[in-house]
Design a protein that fits this description.
By secondary structure, this protein is α/β, with parallel strands linked by helices. It has helices at 14-23, 35-47, 58-64, 66-82, 99-107, 122-137, 169-179, 210-219, 235-243, 256-263, 274-290, 297-320, 326-337, and strands at 27-31, 52-57, 89-96, 112-115, 144-149, 154-156, 159-161, 183-186, 225-227, 267-272. It has one domain (5-327): TIM Barrel (Alpha-Beta Barrel). 1,3-dihydroxyacetonephosphate is lined by residues 31, 94-95, 192-193, 228-231, 271-275.
């Protein structure tokens, strides 16, 4: 039976992006696959009063079970309220690869979907993105739609892109007009995963292509832009993984300074998954190495969850700038609905 996201206490991303654009900050979009990640995200965002987009990939949906996910999202909203929070929470499909998947997610309570047809020829990308937007926008409760132009290097779910293809600014007006999507993911030099740049030890990664972003902003004034592949891959956690038997040599991400600059621009949504994976892995490795007799999952998943929560609080406060805007956005949503 189809259910609307409003019944789960979730919101779409319209007001979040409006406020992020006006305020020069970005909404965090954190991926989750399990209970501990979800707990960490909610705790961090309540504690820092930040709006949040909970992201679920196709793989995460298969891993966690789609029915369970719906109730986890509903539980997250209730937990947030019980904690005394008043933050807007969106549930978003990350890298949806078909109209059918997007529709299925919307029917099970997602408030936002990404249709990623960026690896298809331009006209096919437009056709599929428009099909999703037409469907999502004509429901009684408006569902937000994100599409992508340009291809990120690395792996996008099942699609492997060997090299990034930067977004062509000349295409963005035509694309957004013809598809009617609500936000646009662009390719300006980031990539998915923990190995974003090939640099020698001690060398700084190349800067993102802010010139392309500026050109896009000029052509689409006030239009929400999304940055994928935005993990920073903190070196202290790479070191932790490597110190305790892992092998993540040469892992490198996007610097906090580059992300701060992006967040202050038309970039309204910043996607982070790998940082969460890294922190959880580092903490668990350390515990396994130091306490080989430990076999209660709460004793290693719990500390991993707490470290993830602390990292996300720092991100909201010091990188994305979303901290302190949760209740403000939630109140604006309620006022608009009243
Ligand atoms: O962009 C991809 C996200 O990091 C999700 O990754 O497909 O392995 O869940 P996943
Ligand atoms: P990272 O791999 O940099 O965390 O990117 C995540 C992402 O873009 C999810 O869509
Ligand atoms: Zn992505």
């Amino acid at each position: 039976m189809a259910i609307s996201y409003k019944e789960l206490g979730l919101v779409n991303t319209k007001m979040m992006f409006k406020k992020a654009m006006e305020g020069g900050f970005a909404i965090p979009a954190y991926n989750f696959n399990n209970m501990e990640q979800l707990q960490a995200i909610i705790q961090a965002c309540v504690e820092s009063d930040s709006p949040v987009i909970l992201q679920v990939s196709k793989g995460a949906r298969q891993y966690a079970n789609q029915t369970l996910l719906r109730y986890m999202a509903m539980g997250a909203v209730e937990m947030m309220r019980e904690m005394g929070g008043n933050i807007p929470i969106a549930l978003h499909l990350d890298h949806g690869d078909s109209f059918e998947l997007a529709k299925d997610c919307i029917e099970s309570g997602f408030s936002s979907v990404m249709i990623d047809a960026s690896h298809h020829p331009y006209d096919e990308n437009i056709r599929v993105s428009k099909q999703v937007a037409d469907y999502a926008h004509n429901l009684p409760d408006y569902v937000s739609v994100e599409a992508e132009l340009g291809v990120l290097a690395g792996i996008e779910d099942d699609v492997e892109a060997a090299k990034s293809i930067y977004t062509q600014p000349e295409q963005v007006e035509d694309f957004t007009k013809r598809t009617n999507v609500d936000s646009l993911a662009i390719s300006i030099g980031t990539s998915h995963g923990a190995y974003k740049f090939k640099v020698k030890p001690g060398e700084a990664p190349p800067p993102l292509r802010f010139d392309i972003l500026e050109e896009i902003q000029k052509r689409l004034p006030g239009f929400p832009i999304v940055l994928h592949g935005a993990s920073s891959i903190p070196q202290e956690y790479v070191d932790l993984v490597n110190r305790y038997g892992g092998d993540m040599e040469n892992a490198v991400g996007v610097s906090a300074a580059q992300l701060r600059r992006a967040a202050a621009s038309a970039v309204c949504k910043i996607n982070i998954d790998s940082d969460g994976r890294l922190v959880v892995t580092g903490v668990i490795r350390k515990i396994f190495a130091e306490k080989p007799g430990e076999f209660d999952p709460r004793k290693y998943l719990g500390p991993a969850r707490d470290a993830l929560r602390d990292l996300l609080i720092q991100k909201n406060k010091n990188v994305l700038g979303s901290a302190g805007h949760g209740a403000e956005i939630m109140d604006a949503i309620k006022a608009e609905e009243a």
